[in-house]
Amino acid sequence: MPGPSTLDFYDVELRAHHERLRAAYGIKSGDQVLDIGCGTGLTTREAARAAAPGPVVGVDVSEKMLHRARELSADEGLDNIRYELGDAQVHPFEAASFDVAISRFGTMFFPDPPVAFANIATALRPGARLVLLVWQRREHNEWMRAINAALGDPAQAAPPHFDPFSLGDAEATERLLEGAGFEDIRFEDVREPVLYGHDLEPALAFLRGLQSAAVLENQTDEEAARIDERLRELLTTNYTDDRGAALDSRSWLVTASRSPN
Question: What distance in Å separates the CA atoms of residue 259 and residue 261, rounded to the nearest whole number?
């Protein structure tokens, strides 16, 4: 299993985005909350503190991430969280059981988005809130284009549905959510940096880990060294004393309500 520093790095990378998401939750004491694609559970733990004594359920497809999430939740003494291994597209949620559903970049990879969001809607009570962060279109996210260029564009080897920018078209995503049973859908333009910190070595390890297994298998030591050199140059070029290494990005903060019908 990767060490905690590797598993937790995603939270470091997205900490500026996280503040925007947290401000939009609107979670109240006693709410029942669903966290979709919860990862190591930072958003789940914050939701649990806001909702207490209300229960919070974090769902993710990675057992490694959930193991770390359970460790961190236990360390913080949070007893109103339950983590479940599952794919939100087909997970058997109890119908009409949640007051709020949240997700920080955890809803872009569904093979069948209409089915996935319909399943999520079924889990929400009428009038319940949906609060998501999703990436805008790839062309508006120089951070990913620059990283892919340094890596040799490993995204080309990714499965067709594994697209971080699949919800980047606001009009298409609005139609998708309407079809799934949501209304009052709003998109807020978020322009926060992706942050890689002041210590470049963990950042380099994290970024190199974005390469697909197929690319890694065919890589010589010389090619690997060139990739490391390009990644290091990318981070140092975008380094400042106050923020460390930071790359520009754009995302949507999406809010909606479960239709009463």
Answer: 5
Return the C-alpha torsion angle 108, 109, 110, 113, nearest 10. Answer: 30
For 99-120, the pLDDT digits (tens) are 999 999 999 999 999 999 999 9
Alpha-carbon gap, residue 197 to 201, rounded angstroms: 10
For the chain, domains (ranges, CATH) are 4-258 (3.40.50.150)
What is the residue type of 209?
Answer: G
Q: From CA 214, how far away is CA 96, in angstroms rounded? A: 42
Query: E strand or H helix at 103, and its extent?
Result: strand 98-104
Do residues 221 and 148 lie in contact, with contact meaning Cβ atoms separated by under 8 Å?
no
Task: Kindly give the residue spans of alpha helices, DSSP state H, lying in the chain.
Answer: 4-13, 15-24, 42-51, 63-75, 113-123, 142-151, 170-180, 200-208, 213-217, 221-237
Other C-beta atoms within 10 Å of 250: how many? 17
Per-residue pLDDT of 15-65, as tens digits, reads: 889 889 988 999 999 999 999 999 999 999 999 999 999 999 999 999 999
pTM score: 0.90
Q: How do the residues of the chain divide into helix, strand and coil, expressed in percent and rounded to 5?
A: 45, 25, 35
* DSSP-assigned letters across all residues of 220-232: -HHHHHHHHHHHH
DSSP 26: -
CB-based contact 146:173 (threshold 8 Å): no
What's phi and psi for 211, nearest 5 deg?
A: -70, 145
Query: For residue 94, what is the DSSP state?
Result: P
